[in-house]
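Reviewers of the previous submission asked for a worked example of the structure-prediction workflow described in the proposal, so we include one complete record here. The input consisted solely of the amino acid sequence. No template or homolog information was supplied to the procedure at any stage.
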Amino acid sequence: MTVSAKAQAQKIVDEAKTHSDRLIYGANDYSDNTLRELQEQVADLGNSLDELASGVQNHIDVLLGQIQAGRNVIATRRGEHRPGGRRRGGRGGFVDLRSPSRRPWPASRTRRAPASPGAGGSRPRRTWDWR
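From that input alone, the workflow returned the following structure tokens.
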């Protein structure tokens, strides 16, 4: 082979290598951008689910509070309207549903998530952003 042919072959190899490097860079850049977009969508979905679960838990807490208040009213009425005007001893029928030892059902039927530490028993918002 002549020096000219070798130089031309090397030039073709260098151009192919440069073109290959550009294709690899473009493919990696496209993949990274696509994965970043997917990551953001999944993070948004996770945050939306956390907000939904928190909202549902808040409604459950409100309902349990209303149920407890109603049961307390009934217990008070029972204590005040006993035949002979005597009240029952003890708590007058008060049942604190928040106390696990006072629940009228086994703990295995309790579906509330354990309260997390925080002000007012609020659950901290979990974020799914991994950037």
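The chain has one helix and no strands. We consider this example representative of the routine output the project will generate in years two and three.
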